[in-house]
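Case study B.
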Amino acid sequence: MAEIILKNVTKSFGQIEVIKGVDLLIKKGEFMVFVGPSGCGKSTMLRLISGLESITTGEMTFDGEVVNNVIPSKRGVAMVFQSYALYPHMNVYNNMAFGMKLAKSGTGDIKQRVEEAAKLLQIEHLLDRLPKQLSGGQRQRVAIGRAIVRDPRVFLFDEPLSNLDAALRVATRLEIAKLHHDMGDVTMIYVTHDQVEAMTLADRICVLRDGYVEQVGTPSELYEKPDSIFVAGFIGSPKMNFLEGEFADAFDCSTLGIRSEHIDFCDENPVWQGEVVHTEDVGSDNYIFVEIGSKEPLIVRSPGRKGSVYGMKVGLKPQDQHLHRFNREGRPIR
Amino acid sequence: MTRTPWEWTRLIGFYALVVVIVVISIFPFYYAILTSFKSGTAIFEINYLPVDFSVQNYITVMTGRNFIRSVINSVFISGVTVLLALFLAVTASYALSRVRFRGRSLLLITILGVSMFPQIAVLAGLFELIRFLGIYNTPWAMVLSYTIFTLPFTVWVLTTFMRDLPIEIEEAAIIDGATPWNIITKVFMPLLWPALVTTGLLAFIGAWNEFLFALTFTISETQRTVPVAIALLSGASEQEIPWGPIMAASVIVTVPLVILVLIFQRKIVAGLTAGGVKG
Ligand SMILES: Nc1ncnc2c1ncn2[C@@H]1O[C@H](COP(=O)(O)OP(=O)(O)O)[C@@H](O)[C@H]1O
Ligand SMILES: [Mg+2]
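Model:
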């Protein structure tokens, strides 16, 4: 439960500047997700907040206290690593108790806290096992358990689900969301490159690109009012359709963006016309790829399962209120 | 379960090979033990099974001039070499595996390259160095030269081992509030110790068996190590080679090594499988 403020924070490794001036406020008890393509600096941001790396310039505060030079264990953070990073030679109990033992807490205290956390995560029956005797999902729980036992002000997750298989990933995602509810006012910061994970978990999302913050906002803000072509293209699945050239000129912009669910089929006065070149039926929806002469075929969502016939000519019309118009710099025209 | 003739052939071939290897490696030592318990001229009769049991040779060796002293020298030199080499190797390989600096891989290759020099090539130079340092005819001459020859291998093995330890485990410990000392003693050592035991044991054996340096860098009988002492064991007359006592001495200095390896071998295997960092 801490409010974290970053003021013009930069981080360089030698000559290379990786974080290039970030201003960010993370509210108390918020679930903040850092999302962005691989290599954009998400992990580095998390490590700066954890204290594993020190910031090069700028200022970082936790609840108003400057923590630039405070060591990780004094910041009250706990971190869940992508590779779990359990101590291989310690059983689950000792893995979870290690931090408290180092802090010289009483044995009774430690036992109680570890058992509470184990109960919360349903790993009580695993306490005597070594990490190598656990499945991937169980290791993940132990790693989360170890973080809970530390009773942190800030919870940090670095791509915790990326080593799990698809089904387990969805289940664990749900549990992390539940954990955030149960733990009430603990601030959580979660790094992922998967925008679906970001959209489903976050109170607010921070989109990073090349060491800069592109946009910060709630999932629906990012989805509905992206501040740049980059964010518009990054958030949402399938990707937003982008039209350039004469298609954009017709709408007085340099790039026109429109999501697949905001295009209707219409036979009278269509705005665009084309031929169906491909369809993807994902069960709940049917995505239809229409070749209208733009760079890439336009993807149109057609709810329900009524299939379109390959090669069929269709007319299309965008919903005016959902058009995203961008200028030459990639910024929205509103 | 029935086996085809081909499978039988393979099975028999496999065990035949195992037997050949075991015989080749064990037989010389077995024959040394056999000989060490013979007395008088029985030594010159060839038999492959014990015929005679006399501890006379052992008594001769143990009561001989300075043999006990040589064993103590050997234990001291090998022990100190192992400790020194491990200390230097752990710190060096920590730097080589964790700290990024320019020329790191070149340095590693150089270290490995150094271990290819034969002893004889550096003998003269090392001799000068030892005279210069004023440690000629002391145990430190051997400690120095053995450490030099052990380090490349030790550093190399520990560096590859440490590289495989995920850095995130260290970072998890830092977040948990571990000091560097905690990390070394509570996280690093338990994970590294199979590698430490293996390299330490090899360093010990190397130092224990070494002959050339030990012969060159000592002059007085009280400073000798066991291999030199055994080689220079002399009989009643110049023409007599005291085979019995030599064999007894060889057994005395080999048995502790064999026991050491057997003890640690089980633990090395246990440690390696329990370590399973990635699992
Ligand atoms: N310790 C380091 N030394 C040098 N460069 C680094 C270091 N850590 C990360 N980088 C660089 O910083 C950039 C961002 O890395 P990272 O934060 O891990 O990205 P992400 O987690 O978003 O994929 C990458 O280009 C990476 O090569
Ligand atoms: Mg990363």
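The pocket of magnesium ion (ligand 2) is lined by residues A 42-43 (CB under 6 Å). The remaining cases will be described in the next quarterly update.
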